[in-house]
């Protein structure tokens, strides 16, 4: 199963419009502790991709969802939330 492009666009808009602090926490927890901003630029059932803004420029980071791929959009939502919660807790 693949993620519908309209669903992916909606997820990206929601994450970037409403969850900027979560985006930043995720990239900081995944190898970019000095990031000062992050935008989610890609999402699929396997993971997400973020554009990282840092003191030396921009880069991207790909994060696979915990426990493996999501089966559908509902499970994907749960995995994004799980990733954000773990990042805020420093994991």
TrEMBL record:
Domain DUF2470: 9-82
Domain of life: Bacteria
Protein name, UniProt field: DUF2470 domain-containing protein
